[in-house]
Write a structure and sequence with these properties.
The complex is a heterodimer of chains A (643) and B (247). Chain A is of the alpha+beta class. Among the domains of chain A are: 136 residues, Flavocytochrome C3, Chain A, domain 1 (Alpha-Beta Complex); 119 residues, Fumarate reductase/succinate dehydrogenase flavoprotein-like, C-terminal domain (Methane Monooxygenase Hydroxylase, Chain G, domain 1), CATH 1.20.58. Helix content of chain A is 36%, strand content 14%. Chain A contains 16 helices and 19 strands. In chain A, the strands form five sheets. A five-stranded parallel β-sheet of chain A has the order 5-2-1-9-17. Chain A is globular and about 80 Å long. Chain B has 247 residues and is of the alpha+beta class. In chain B, strands 2-1-5-3-4 form a five-stranded mixed β-sheet. In chain B, a hairpin with a 2-residue loop joins strand 6 and strand 7. Chain B is elongated. The termini of chain B are far apart. Classes of the chains: A alpha+beta (643), B alpha+beta (247). At the A-B interface, helix 2, helix 4, helix 5, helix 10 and helix 11 of A face helix 1, helix 2 and helix 3 of B.
Chain lengths: 643, 247
């Protein structure tokens, strides 16, 4: 199989690349657009906005999602905000600064040209969302309000209370609804993509399962867009929704799409700590809380006094101590590791000792309870619901949790994967965040990809490779569809036929624990090598001892989960392999062997300034690693410092 | 904690359905309501019984997927809370808990506790948008919007589309849901050009889908997990009247 890593970065100065690309990309005449069928898998910020925008352009768009409505995609749970280089507060922001902060924040493992373009379109995203009626927070004078986020010294984050993701998603959803009403977009709720169909090496369709009837269906198209989110649920416990999964991405990988940097996972510093083993998911407390909350632990080891009984001079505000210039607003990877370091050293709080305090007492005194409530009320409410503690009176207890995956399917500058005709958007691709994503940048990237980038690059593919002639189009009668459908059906039947003793969740929890302990916030050669023994052994047991009740021809939640977990085993193994080959620490990937004397991540730029792209070679064969060299002519490589 | 659950079981849309009694042992007060169901389902599966099907996804109260009628109250006993954010500490050891799906003509049952809310989708398709194409939008600060209006729009926009309002209304009315979207846009300058058309189209679709009308019971407001106030229904009526009066 061909495997080209041509990043297709346009020539010229970085400020002119996207302008040049947009001119060079081929167009389709408005009258001909309806002759091209586009499949979009996923209806979150990236998928929903891409489907709506391509529908507006006049293409025949078909959008698939596993929830009952596009409005429920997990983008909805993003709380804090969306970055944009508007410089409304006049505090020194610019496209260049957002670009610089994002490249630095990603620990120099992202692709410069993509990040610059992201910064460039960021301002248009805000304009577009305002035009749709997204109710962003406003100042009394009627202007848009901004707040600060980690990894930046300017205020460039736009927000809608603590529900920014919800409001942006509802904006994209409203645009999508308009196109559904016009007939340019057709939606397929409660439908899961189970395989990608390729014909002559090009993506030409998908195989889906209707989650209500169990029906396996074939869908052919001229191009396939996947915006299927991240793979954090490999860990079982994460801030992802229960249904978030990697099946679409993994199936595409098995069909030839390169998987880049799978080991880059973001562990978010401010989540509600795990309380017991019945827990099904972890809840994030927005990073925006670090604008006003102060993080601390007792200065004395094992101090079990109630937090309010510990006097000021016996507290260690360790982020402010270690990173005086960024303080509590250091990037996520740095904040997470610092929390782990304190807890490992015996200073952790709460029953388990695996938590630190996030304290609002100062903010309440300075700003008043009303203003704190106006800024963070819904988050405080949520915290109180889950923990039965009042964060206005006692500091929150927080601990890092799996949140976002920077790795994903490899894409070129046009967001096209190594399979021609398969475009990958949003968290599902790998390109913009390097080894660590800055807060409020996921919403920005999802919408940049969906509103502005894919709508320019996908038509170019259609103009070059597509056909308007109905007789030349691939149909679902093609043998490739036959074959893909059979493999999906066989797999479903296999999962149901094992009839062992252990439930899917049982296996998923065990896999998650292996991943967290061996490939979590800190990885070492030993831990990773051990994981490479544990995962295949558990996978083997899964295929021998899994118990799925119910049948394939009806609504069957256990069957859905079983297919997803089966793919998590394979992806988990690849994550470990990738973490093992990357003998350096960068961003969210922290190898215990590679750290400075002060415990900061130690990169090895001579050996690892590349994106690691894995090629699937077969069920029992080791995957092959390819490298895309990364170049930084505009943001010189330096040691990332937030001191 | 040990509980007795009375759960609605229904194999599919054509099955008649029935309440079944299922015991729940070893429940911890720190579990969420859905984690309690996970625990029960895990046991059922190990016994070879099909698990209780229920909708859920984000489990942090924002996606609007979960939709349980708990002891006759949509989303259960805690005000301003979705079922996924409800914790077992709200119940007592030995309690009997009745769990049913949303009950409304416009929300047919798919399986057990899962209903089909496609009717909500069709209402949104009819007019829940501002007709603006991507690209070429003016600067976000070009049109100032007073903080008061923006906040009101946000109050309405907080709706998560779960359908608790419909499930609780004796008339099966979707007016709070429709009002939330109509009011959001009515408070914003971007919503003005299509203000009349929107309210007419959304209300017409709401009626066609078989939702009832509001007769001021306010059950919707009482159960709304996002505390959307009924004053927006007043706004919806006013918006609708304006179109009838030709203003």
């Amino acid at each position: 199989m061909n495997f080209h890593l041509n990043s297709k970065i346009p020539d010229g100065p970085i400020q002119e690349k996207w302008i040049k690309a947009k001119f060079d990309l081929k167009l389709i005449n408005p009258a001909n657009r309806r002759k091209f069928k586009i499949i979009v898998v996923g209806s979150g910020l990236a998928g929903g906005s891409a489907a709506a925008t391509l529908g507006e352009q006049g293409y025949d768009v078909h959008c698939f999602f596993y929830q009952d409505s596009p409005r429920r995609a997990h983008s909805i749970a993003a709380q804090g905000g969306i970055n944009a280089a508007k410089n409304y507060p006049n505090d020194g922001d610019s496209i260049w600064r957002l670009f610089y902060d994002t490249v630095k924040g990603g620990d120099y493992r992202s692709r410069e040209a993509n990040v610059y373009r992201l910064s460039e379109v960021s301002a248009n995203i805000i304009d577009q969302c305002v035009a749709q009626g997204v109710p962003f927070a406003r100042e009394y004078g009627g202007q848009l309000d901004n707040r600060s986020f980690g990894g930046a010294q300017v205020s460039r984050t736009f927000y809608a209370r603590g529900q920014t993701g919800q409001q942006l998603l509802l904006g994209a959803y409203s645009s999508l609804n308009r196109q559904v009403d016009k007939g340019t977009v057709k939606t397929y709720p409660r439908t899961e993509m189970l395989d990608l169909v390729t014909v002559d090496g090009h993506a030409r369709g998908i195989i889906t399962r209707n989650l209500v009837t169990g029906e396996i269906e074939r869908h052919a198209a001229d191009v396939v867009i996947m915006a299927t989110g991240g793979y954090g649920n490999v860990f079982f416990l994460s801030t992802n929704a229960m249904g978030c999964n990697a099946t679409a991405a993994w199936r595409a990988h098995r069909k030839g799409a390169g998987f880049a940097n799978p080991c880059y996972t973001q562990i978010h510093p401010t989540c509600i700590p795990v309380s017991s083993d019945h827990q099904s998911k972890l809840t994030l407390m927005s990073e925006s809380l670090r604008n006003d909350g102060r993080v601390w632990v007792p200065a004395a080891k094992g101090d079990k006094r109630a937090p309010n009984d510990i006097p000021e001079n016996e507290r260690d505000y360790y982020l402010e101590r270690r990173y005086p210039s960024f303080g509590n607003l250091v990037p996520r990877d740095v904040a997470s590791r610092a929390a782990k370091e304190r807890c490992d050293a015996g200073y952790g709080v709460g029953e388990t000792g695996l938590a630190v305090y996030l304290d609002f007492a100062d903010a309440i005194q300075r700003l008043g309870k009303d203003l704190v409530e106006a800024r963070y009320g819904n988050l405080f409410h949520m915290y109180a619901k889950i923990t039965a503690e009042d964060p206005y009176k006692v500091p929150m207890r927080i601990f890092p949790a799996v949140h976002y995956t920077m790795g994903g399917l490899w894409v070129d500058y046009n967001l096209e994967s190594t399979i021609p005709g398969l475009f990958v958007l949003g968290e599902a691709n790998f390109s913009d965040h390097g080894a660590n994503r800055l807060g409020a940048s996921a919403l920005m990237q999802g919408l940049a990809d969906g509103y502005f980038i894919a709508p320019a690059t996908v038509p170019d593919y259609l103009a070059r490779e597509g056909t308007m002639n109905a007789d030349e189009k691939v149909t679902t009668h093609h043998p490739a569809f036959e074959e893909a459908e059979k493999s999906v059906t066989d797999r479903v039947e296999k999962l149901l036929s094992i009839q062992g003793q252990r439930t899917v969740d049982d296996f998923h929890k065990e896999l998650g624990l292996i991943m967290w302990n061996h490939c979590g916030m800190e990885r070492t050669k030993e831990s990773l090598e051990e994981a490479l023994k544990l995962i295949p052994a558990l996978k083997e047991e899964f295929w021998k001892d899994l118990k799925v009740v119910g049948d394939k021809d009806s609504f069957n939640m256990s069957l859905e989960k079983a297919g997803r977990v089966a793919d998590f085993f394979e992806l988990g193994e690849l994550m470990v392999r990738d973490a093992l080959q990357r003998e350096e620490s960068c961003g969210g990937h922290f190898r215990g062997e590679h750290q400075t004397e002060e415990g900061e991540a130690l990169r090895d730029d001579d050996r690892f300034t590349f994106a690691g792209v894995w090629q699937f070679k077969g069920n029992d064969k080791a995957p092959q690693l390819h490298q895309e060299e990364l170049q930084f002519p505009n943001v010189p490589l330096t040691t990332r410092s937030y001191k | 904690m040990k509980l007795t659950l009375h759960v609605w079981r229904q194999k599919n849309a054509s099955d008649q359905g029935r309440m079944e009694t299922i015991s729940a042992d070893g429940v911890s007060p720190d579990m969420s309501f859905l984690e309690m169901l996970d625990l029960v389902n895990d046991r059922l599966e190990k016994e070879g019984v099909e698990p209780i099907a229920f909708d859920h996804d984000c489990r942090e109260g924002i996606c609007g997927m979960c939709s349980l009628m708990i002891n006759g109250v949509a989303h259960g006993p805690e005000a301003g809370t979705t079922a996924c954010q409800l914790h077992m500490r709200s119940f007592q050891d030995g309690d009997s808990i009745h769990i049913e799906p949303w009950r409304s003509r416009a929300f047919p049952v798919i399986r057990d506790l899962i209903v089909d809310r496609a009717s909500f989708e069709r209402i949104q398709h009819a007019g829940g948008y501002v007709s603006v194409n991507c690209g070429g939008a003016p600067d976000g600060n070009a049109v100032p919007i007073s903080k008061i209006e923006a906040d009101l729009a946000m109050d309405a926009a907080a709706c998560i589309g779960c359908g608790a309002c419909v499930a609780s209304c004796p008339n099966g009315s979707a007016m709070l849901f429709v009002a939330a979207k109509v009011a959001q846009f009515a408070h914003l300058p971007q919503g003005q050009p299509e203000r009349k058309k929107r309210v007419q189209a959304m209300v017409a679709t709401m009626d066609a889908e078989g939702f009832g009308a509001c007769s001021n019971h306010y059950e919707c407001e009482a159960v709304c997990p996002k505390d959307i106030p009924v004053k927006f229904i007043g706004e919806l009526n006013r918006e609708y009247l304006r179109t009838a009066c030709g203003d």
